Each structure stands twice: as structure tokens, then as C-alpha cells.
Amino acid sequence: QSALTQPGSVSGSPGQSITISCTGTSSDVGAYNFVSWYQQHPGKAPKVMIYDVTNRPSGVSNRFSGSKSGNTASLTISGLQAEDEADYYCSSYSSSSTLRFGGGTKLTVL
Amino acid sequence: EVQLVESGGGLVQPGGSLRLSCAASGFTFSSFWMTWVRQAPGKGLEWVANINLDGSEKNYVDSVKGRFTISRDNDKNSLYLQMNSLRAEDTAVYYCARGQTRPALWGRGTLVTVSS
What we know:
Chain A has about 110 residues and is an all-beta fold. Chain A contains no helices and nine strands.
């Protein structure tokens, strides 16, 4: 039950776009369209930004988008803003009715 | 208001026990799988356990199997996590979350510290 693989950190300047990858296996990311992305600010609970690979909950900016190819999912944030600086986690439903999280990616807005 | 509120965290000695609770409000609790997720200090999120609508199916991460028990009371709109034989590595903020495949509603968490 190891974690999905995410880069430890990414950075970008305001207005730029960044992409965070999330690599799993054919038993989780590759098998199901149940990939979610969470944003977590320090001391706060995670907030879902993308669910089921590409869907945005109401209230989440359309600057956030998700995609998947094979065993790798991706989160893209366009038009970076200072408020986007946070930790981001992916999750995927996995076999045996379990959920796996990525190790997290720290986004720095320069 | 749709929300989840965890309680029951605290300081406990290694080998001790603790029972966490999660009170749900604002939605039909019995219609959702529920999940516990934890986050050790400075670390990432870790899925701990989930439970189906009527409590007949329960799943756990390997590291807590045999020590933790997830349960629910749909009449009381509450989720529980009984934690026994606690270890230092169980120290974390424990979140309850609504959903199985894509937990979308989270509580604020309750801190569990295992230390002598």
C-alpha cells in the first residue's frame, strides 16, 4: 500500500501554468476514473479541487483542470495566483475498496 | 449546514486506546460511505479505513489492521474509530471524510498524540 508518486515540489510565477503529475499503477490510477486532487493550506483540512479525473466541484476556479493518461494523472493550474500556494495531493480509488494518496507536492508561487 | 466534526483526540501512552468520533450534520449520513484519513505532523495524507452504508463492509490500511476498528451509528449520524495498541507512529491529525472513491467533505480533524 505504497503512496502514489508525486513530485516533491513545483514552482511558478504569477500568471504562469504548472502541472503536477501523479503516477500509480494498473491497479489504481490506470484502472479507475476515480482520481481526485486536494489542496491543503497550512493548518487546514484538505479541499477537493478535482474529482473523477476531470470534474471540478462548484466554487472551484476553472483555472484548475485534471487529466489522465494510462497510470499517470495530472493537475494543471493556469494563471497562477498567490493564493494557489499550498500542498497538493492526488488520490485514487484502488482495488480492495481502498484509497491511495500521493505523497504530496508543495507548490510555491514565486 | 453540511459538516463533519471530529472529537476524541488527545495524548495517550504507547499501548493505550482512544476512540474517535465524527458527528455528521446537514446531509443524509446513512447514504454515504465514510472514511478516516490521517496526517502525521509534517507528512502527507494517509488513508486509514472506510465503511459502507450499513457497516457491513470495512476496509483498513495494513498498518492498522487488527488494532483499529471503524464503525458507524446511522441513528446518531456518527462515525467512530476505535484505536487500540497505539504506537508512536499513529501520532497524527485524524480526519473523517464523506465518500469512498472521492472523499469530498472533510472535517477539521482531531489530533492524536501517542507518547510517554
